[in-house]
Amino acid sequence: MSIQADTSILNRVDGSATLKSGETEIIVSVSGPIEAKPRQELPTTSALDIIIRPDIGISTTREKLLEDKLRQVLTPVIIGILYPRQLIQITIQVLQSGEDKEYTSKELSTIINATYLALIDSNIGLKVSFAAESFAISTDDEIITAPSRSQLKSSKSSHIVSYEISNGKATKLLFSDSIGTFSENQIYQILDLAATKVEETHQIFRKTIQDKIEKDFIWQL
Amino acid sequence: MAKGIEVSINEKSFVFDALKQGIRLDGRKLEDFRNVDITLGDEYGYVDVRLGKTRVVARISAEISTPFEDRPFEGLFTVSTEISPMASAMFENQRQSDDELLISRAIEKAVRRSGALDLESLCIIAGSKCWSIRADVHFLDYDGGFIDASCIAVMTGLQHFRKNDITVSGEQIVIHSVEEREPVELSVLHVPICVTFAFFNPEGVEENIKGESNNEIYIVDTTLEEDLLKDGVLTVAVNKNREVCQISKAGGLPMDALTLMDCGRKAYDIAVELTNQIKKLLEADYKRRNEGIQYKLRAENDRITVE
Amino acid sequence: MSRFEIYSPEGLRVDGRRWNELRRFECRINTHPDSSDGSSYVEQGNSKVICIVNGPMEPSSKAEMSTSKATLKISLNVTPFSSIDRKKRSKNERRIQEIVTSLKRTFEQSIIVNKYPRTTISITLHVLALDGGLLSSITNAITLALIDAGIAMYDYISSVSAGFYNNTPLLDLNQLEESDVSFLTIGVVGKSEKLALLLLENKIPLDQLESVLAIAIAGGHRIRDLMDKEVRRHGDLRLSKLANK
Fold first, then answer.
1. In what helix (H) or strand (E) does residue A52 lie, and over which residues does it extend?
2. Contacts of residue B59 in chain A, CB cutoff 8 Å?
3. What region holds the Exoribonuclease phosphorolytic domain (chain C) (predicted)?
4. Residue B74: closest CA among B127, B135, B134
5. C94 touching chain B per CB within 8 A
């Protein structure tokens, strides 16, 4: 599957990234740390403002749910204590969702990956790297990595798995979300498979970040 | 980055002095429109427009829905223009500022109220079924010119979009997939193009109201910095047939009527140029898509279009 | 097309006017002397508008205070009984909001706002009857009420609509004409040819725009004269009261 990533594409925000993985295309912007509104302010850590906007139509409960899931991924990873009483605003625009409205797995895994790149681009402190991958189990019990729109539609269940990555190795499970029917055995298979897939994805991101740093520091050469 | 962007007095006088000499900070002439870079997506109705640093993406989509009771013979067309903080921190999420309101109204009037899309052609079964066309405009990056860019994006999108073919038998509608039948294009009646002018008053307010000098400066297609400093703004939507579809000068610096007429004519020249650019792009895209076997298998004959 | 003849071959419109004739324009200022600082009542044909101005006064919240100029607050209430269909119009309707924003930006330029720093000028409008020319009648009403309130302005803003139908420009449209004719509304500054406000929502051929603008400006000047007459009449009345004391 093809992954195309690019960072620092927007001018009015602190960090931005676009990620196209397969049929799904996401653009993420990060502004922060910025001044928080009094009601958002948290005295010891940074507040996270996550906005997800769908490609077609206005945001619904589906997007709110995605926002909430992303918050679960990001809260333990961002070093909030560095930015007390400040706000980190993450805006995610889905450009092409690549799946039908009743599924969220491809969108969410791409969003997690794109947000990772945008956060790196914005120089927000992160405790650890992370990456996510989406899976589906087909009707003949085959595990499909990064399913296509039609594969997802005919699948029995869909899964998203995100791992923390340190030193290029997937260490801790950060987030896992499954919808559909599947066996205990299958989910463990997926978790194992995800660890290797996520490591592969991470290598691509490392390359992207390396390119970005080379571009950013071109004046030093 | 701060919420609002403030321009210092020094910057302001620098921009003003330059304008008085007919120079703009990005090297354009006062009446130059920025280069418009339009990219069409693989999906029908996906348009990415870049106007300098401004970037807007429009998505056109269609679904079947019920028409309004008082208009049974017309389909639905909605334009959604919500600006997220992605474009700039000055836009708050889910809270519409005055500027945002004027932007969305201008697009709405230029594209929807001017009848750019033939709504009657969207009717399937009078009073019960019709196509509902939706244009979602995503504002990604802001450097002025949102109205102009999004108008181009929506109009290109509408012309690029193809909706699934349908067969109607009684109350039953069959929607054919793209593989099954060639999707059909929307009936776009004319292509309005918005051009925004900004006014600057190099002299005092008294001179503007009472004086005869008419020294006000007008420039085309402002960048964000110019946009924040402007004294007044005028948006003209005009199509290739020399029809003005919308004019909005919502207050701001009073301008001489003759100057406004000049703006109208300038807008027309720019609109013709842009319409041709869009047309060329769409033709190239059409050719690319229909290369190879599918092109030969088409049932439809090549029609000769007479301009 | 409707059953009505918008412009007959004899050169008459639905209500019997010629192409360049205004509707009956009547205005009063100082209509609510006890409840406001400035007030006016404008009848433009069958459209009737009341405008109340309060201020310059202390702003209700610090957030809306500007240290360099007065802030304008406009609230527009189109009453449900103003038109035939009795539709309840919300203040948050986007069309109403757009009008309010346009008016705010128009009058911010014509009031000498920097004379009243740290204050608010609040303008309240009630449309009692609507027969076309919503924007123009409220603009005229605001101008008069601001003058009555004694707020310093550079000049009158007089507003009128003009349309274009079958190669003829038509001045000051009523509701019937508005629904069939494409039209624009302008706000003219004093006796000049400068436009503070220009809104066009339907299609007009570019080459005809100039002729439509020309009669609109002429109509605007005529309305300015009528408003000026009323202001002077009221001024004389006030003066004579002073003299009698």
1. strand A47-53
2. 55-56, 95
3. 21-151, 155-218
4. B127
5. yes
Which residues neighbour C32 within 8 Å (Cβ) at sequence distance 6 or greater? C39, C50, C52
Tokens of B142: 């802001």
| Domain residue limits, chain A | 3-220
Distance of alpha carbon A67 from its chain centroid, rounded? Answer: 11
Roughly what angle, to the nearest 10 degrees, separates helices A61-74 and A105-121?
50
Q: Is it the case that chain A and chain B have 3 or more CB pairs lying under 8 Å apart? A: yes
In C13-119, which ranges are E strands?
25-29, 38-44, 47-57, 71-78
Phi and psi at A166, nearest 5°, equal -130, 140
Per-residue confidence (pLDDT) for residue B293, from 0 to 100: 52
Q: List B228's β-bridge partners, or say none.
A: none
**Contacts of C among chains (3+ CB pairs under 8 A):** B
Which residues are A50's β-sheet partners?
A90
Q: Which of C177, C192, C244 is nearest to C16 (CA)?
A: C177
List pLDDT tens digits, range C149-201. 999 999 999 999 999 998 899 999 999 898 889 999 999 999 999 999 999 98
Cβ-Cβ contacts under 8 Å, B52 against chain A: none
- Looking at the complex, does the CB of residue C225 fall below 8 Å from at least one CB of chain B? no
Q: Which CATH number fits domain A3-220: 3.40.190.10, 3.30.230.70, 3.40.50.300, 3.50.30.50?
A: 3.30.230.70
**Per-residue pLDDT reduced to its tens digit, C68-84:** 899 999 999 999 999 88
**Which of A78, A83, A82 lies closest to A119 in space, CA to CA?**
A78
Put simply, the answer to whether B251 touches C104 (Cβ < 8 Å) is yes
DSSP string, A151-211: HHHT-SEEEEEEEEEETTEEEEEEEEEEEE---HHHHHHHHHHHHHHHHHHHHHHHHHHHH
**Pairing relation of β-strands B232-238 and B255-256?**
unpaired
